[in-house]
């Protein structure tokens, strides 16, 4: 493994540790629950509103984008500590 690869792997490991520090435990779970509720995480973004209001694809895309931040957080939390390279290939 090259020196650059070693540095990238160490930086990724530090990042994963930071994610776990921030988003695990009681405080982290409380924040994630609040964010999930506030953006409708786990619910579809691209649905027609009830009551005959017109569908707004821009608003739906914005809702979906807000949810993508939580996808990123959860992806980092699911990455095993001993495998930080798993996300290196995506970025």
Secondary structure tally, helices? 4
How many strand units? 0
The overall average pLDDT, rounded, is 86
Gyration radius (Cα, Å) is 17 Å
The N- to C-terminal Cα distance equals 18 Å
Order of helices and strands: HHHH
Largest sheet: none
* Percent in strands: under 5%
Return the structural class.
mainly alpha
* Overall geometric form: elongated
What's the number of domains? 1
Bin the helical content: 55-70%
What is the structure about, briefly put?
Helix content is 68%, strand content 0%. It is mostly helical and 91 residues long. Helix 2 (25-39) packs antiparallel against helix 3.
Please supply descriptive tags for the structure shown above.
91 residues, 4 helices, mainly alpha
Task: Map the helices and strands.
Elements: H1 3-23, H2 25-39, H3 57-78, H4 85-88
Helix pairs in contact: 2-3
Written overview of the protein:
The protein has 91 residues and is mostly helical. Helix content is 68%, strand content 0%. Helix 2 (25-39) runs antiparallel to helix 3. The two termini are 18 Å apart. 1% of the residues are buried. The model has no long low-confidence stretch (mean pLDDT 86).
